[in-house]
Protein: Fructose-1,6-bisphosphatase class 1
Amino acid sequence: MSEGLDALVVGGDHDRVVGEVVDVVSRTAPEIREGLVGRRQPVGGEANPTGDTQMEADVWADDLLGERLRAIEGVGEYASEERESVVDCGEGLSVAVDPLDGSSNLVSNNPMGTIFGCYTEPIPAPGTALVAAGYVCFGPVTTMVVATDDGAAEYEIDGGDRRLLEGSVTLPREPTVYGFGGRVPEWSPEFTAFAREIEGECKPRYGGAMVADVNQVLSYGGIFSYPALGSRPAGKLRLQFEGNPIGYVVERAGGRSSDGEGSLLSRDADELHGRTPVHVGSPDLIDRLEDALA
Ligand SMILES: O=P(O)(O)OC[C@H]1O[C@](O)(COP(=O)(O)O)[C@@H](O)[C@@H]1O
Ligand SMILES: [Mg+2]
Ligand SMILES: [Mg+2]
Structure:
């Protein structure tokens, strides 16, 4: 494990496996980034298991990560947003991946990311079974945030190297930015009223890739929400691949996560591709949001 991760305690035999998962994701990130060129089109007529358009890069990144993560001894399951079912690969941790989060941004050339979570239980698993999670953010530079039960660390990825930027990522207490997904007329009256309050207090930052939007919240303080919509009462984002790992990272950085009622991590996981409303950010704002939705 590289510097920084050593400080994050995973516990028991999971330590080595998590270290190898993080190594694979960070080593693969520059290849994914380079491979986006020429893969920015939808795959002919294909939708992924949750009905979203699959870009060529979605499928390619999933193949690359899937092959490498499944080869790690101690990874027992590989699950991806881009696959219909879980791949069994032996005994050990279950790894869930959103190979490219925000891949619709490929068309407009805006930031995106890769999300992963390491669960101690078979997938679908609750967020309480996570022992590590993280994401890569493909922005002007490539960064990675990794969280374990001991906290969160941020790295810069340059070629094959992962350099520690911050060994103890802490969500700033003072909220500065907000990003809310979905069309406003589709929000509930309660969420709309909450949003109106926040609009008077923070600056809007919404880019259409959760990883990049949450990364701003982690950098500046504030809140990211993709709420339940009239046309999507269960929300848009997926619990296994997006809600749980991002909720885990934000909580380990001192923030809060919520599905509108309580922590994302305590939400039941009954479906592999199940969706959830996602709210993450400064504890005070998430408390206020839950009060507003109650
Ligand atoms: O286009 P919208 O409705 O704003 O949705 C954006 C949201 O959908 C996502 O792009 C879904 O992720 P995928 O690209 O992995 O399907 C999130 O990253 C983002 O928060
Ligand atoms: Mg996603
Ligand atoms: Mg995706």
